[in-house]
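Before the break, one more example. Copy the sequence into your notebook; we will annotate it together after we see the structure.
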Amino acid sequence: MKQDPEVRSFSIGENDQGKRVDRILRNLLPQYSLGFIYKMIRKGSITLNRRKVAPTHRVALGDILTVPSSLRMKELTPLESESPADLPILYEDEDFLVLNKPKGITAHGAHSLLPSIILYLQGKTPYSLTYTPGPLHRLDRNTTGILVFGKSLMGARLFSSALRNGLVEKHYVTILTGILEEPARWEHVLQRDSRKKRTMLGTDPTDTSTGKRSIGITEVFPLAHSTLLPSGITLVVLQIHTGRTHQIRAQASFEGHPLLGDFKYGGQAFRGGYFLHAFRLRMPDRLDLQAPLPKAFAVTIRTLFGEGHFPFLGPSR
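Here is what the structure looks like once it is written out:
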């Protein structure tokens, strides 16, 4: 059966099923108002399985959505990218792609990992009108380690639900300025200053812009100490129970133990800047992952603290 040149037809896939027709069209036709889209549906210019349907109708797997070719649609082809051969993949299954993110690169936006990931996943994920693989949580540009990307809508929903319910365990390792003798639990009201791009101490535990609680909670476990630097330094493992922007860096500074090399938050200068590595992530019944340290961080730990203080150093060369 030949395609009518005046329309484009789209098959509803696994990542689109169950969604409302109007929401699929808002994604497919971003340049048009919702009122215009409703008008096209009412006139029968946009159909599902060649029939008029209500905008709120929910599509099923295999349904055929037909849209006039004259409408300007979102480009559905993958972004252009360099070869993805060097992606630092830790783990992959049908729902998740997990990377050991290097330092100095972001998870999304211009010059990020995302274009290479979309290219890598081309042909490996079901075609979708609405779902594009993307990062399921944040890591700052200079934070390294475990970063989870969603390959499927189901995977994205599972991970997001686990995050909301506090079921995703995330552990980091870093070097703090000063000597921290005992484990600690840090709790602060955090407020983001978007102009200065800094996280500050706040006074109101509720974020006025979102209505959500803005408490940062981090547990800290000292592993080793060193007096090779005048201030003294402490190698620590941290577990975060919330996920605020710059949470670890800001809370460490508030507690008088800024990350070594984190000049922005009051840390003393250190060649190469600060190290902060997300070395373990656990999601019950699905993920339990560990990421080897970057070589520069592993060498720094050995130089400052000696051998045997951190079990995930990886090879020394």
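The longest strand covers residues 215-226. Residues 28 and 75 are 8 Å apart (CA to CA). Try to locate both features in your own notes.
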